[in-house]
Amino acid sequence: MNRINFERFFKTEKQKQFSTDFFKNAGEYETWDEINFSTDKEFDGEQTFTIKAEDMKAYAEGVLDDHALMNDEKYAQKSPYGSLVPHPIFITQIAFWCIGTKGQGNWIRTPGARNPGQDFEFYEPFRVGETIHIKMRPYDRYIKRGKYYLKYKIDFYSQKEVKKATWILTLILPRTKADIKKFVEGVRGLDA
Amino acid sequence: MTKITFDSVQTGQELAPFTKKVNQEIFWKYAVASFDYNPVHNDPEWVKTAQPFKVPYTVAHGMMTMSFMTSVVTNWAYPNMLRIRKITSKFTLPVAPGWTVKCTGVISEKHVISKGKNYVVVDLKAENQEGALLGVGEIEVVFPD
Questions:
Q1: pTM of the entire predicted model
Q2: Which strand (E) or helix (H) includes residue A56?
Q3: How far is it, in rounded angstroms, from Cα A118 to Cα A140?
């Protein structure tokens, strides 16, 4: 259940539509021990992300960055960029949206997951008006000091199939569905 | 403002820090901005018993700390039309509500390749108000000149 009233912070259309309750359907999230590494097959995200100025501005505001290139459309239009420039980690918003709730990669929503650090490469800037889609595949899975690490490679493409960025997404996860269930019930589901 | 060129930057050069005090309200706003609604950042009641980080309080999103570190570089690079190509990060200590996060960056490497491909590496770190290390990162910045 979601005890927090997030609605008072909503400013964008996507924020109003996105599922904020990470406990809901948590029993259906992929788990560390379920990921299939036997194939290199890529899979698509659940939905695409059409970038609006309000999305970029919301991210900049969320990270307390008031740089005019990220927040002021008129200023950005007059700059050499010609339009808003996203904060680089705006890519997080795109990823969560595109992965969605029911498809592969939904382990990113796992209650109790921990973030040990991340890696990004950027090839082309994200622009307002583009529609981004992602392709994902399992990248690595390992145990280190009793913690269960899972990595996915996520590639971000425009509607013209221009590769925009790559995220090697890493989280420390509860290992099994039973461990996730513990977290949902408010009990620690990790050994380390 | 003097335009920054590849010739003008030097290893050891420090960038302007990016410092923010955070609290639960800011964690919630970041959740909305990023779509990361993991309860470890958002639900003070749940975390009292669930304790993914072995502490009974919420902690900041790692991606927020990473964003703060990245802003050290964007504030320097974006006005000068420099391109961020690669970002890596590791988090060493979860950030508690009420802490001040101070992010600093130093140009650690200068890669002299060719016009349009020259780049620098900025080493980043985030510390709290007591100097405890919260995270580190590296960002590659490509120069157009």
A1: 0.97
A2: helix A53-62
A3: 13
pLDDT at position B52 over 60: yes
Contact A93 B34 (CB under 8 A): yes
CA distance B7 to chain A (A): 21
**CA dihedral of A105, A3, A19, B30, whole degrees rounded to 10:** -80
- What pLDDT was estimated at residue A39? 86
CB-based burial of residue B105 (10 Å sphere; 0-12 exposed, 13-18 middle, 19+ buried)? buried
**Are the Cβ atoms of B33 and A69 closer than 8 angstroms?**
no
* Minimal C-alpha gap between B110 and chain A (Å): 19
For A37-184, CATH number out of 1.10.10.10, 3.40.50.360, 3.10.129.10, 3.40.50.300 equals 3.10.129.10
The predicted complex's ipTM stands at 0.97
For residue A64, give the nearest of B20, B54, B79 by CB distance.
Answer: B20
Question: What is the CATH T-level fold of the domain B14-22+59-142, as seen in this structure?
Answer: Thiol Ester Dehydrase; Chain A (3.10.129)
Query: If you measure CA to CA, which chain A residue comes closest to B42?
Result: A4
